[in-house]
Amino acid sequence: MNIGDKLPEVLGKDQEGNEIRTADFAGKKFILYTYPKDNTPGCTAEACSLRDNREELLSLGYEIVGVSKDSAASHQKFIEKHQLNFPLIADTDTSLLQQLGAWGEKVFCGKKSIGTLRTTYLIDEEGRIADIFLPKQIKTKEHASQIIDRIKK
Fold this sequence. Notes:
Helix content: 25-40%
Number of strands: 9
């Protein structure tokens, strides 16, 4: 998906089994971020960066929703372990990740694989993509600051 594209109506189910829809955020902005795997160093750093800066992001008008292919049970453990204060969508069939364009070939240590491409989408009040952070732009430990800086521009 690209800037200006409208998100699909049904985003998926969160860690509690609640369906998350784009309409849930009608008239509000939100951050939809995709990440490879619960409880891995980079993904934990990114989630904790967002957790620690959630109040400032809320003050700027943005909620946070994470997405990975991990199960709801995995997400629940991840949330509890790191006291995350936002929902995580369990996209176990990767349908949302594929629709977003956040599923594809990655290279790590010279080894190619198919998986989640760490990407962040800033969504406007109409459910459209207003901005995108591509995988190479994201610094996991500082990601909330990166988002805040871009929002304030």
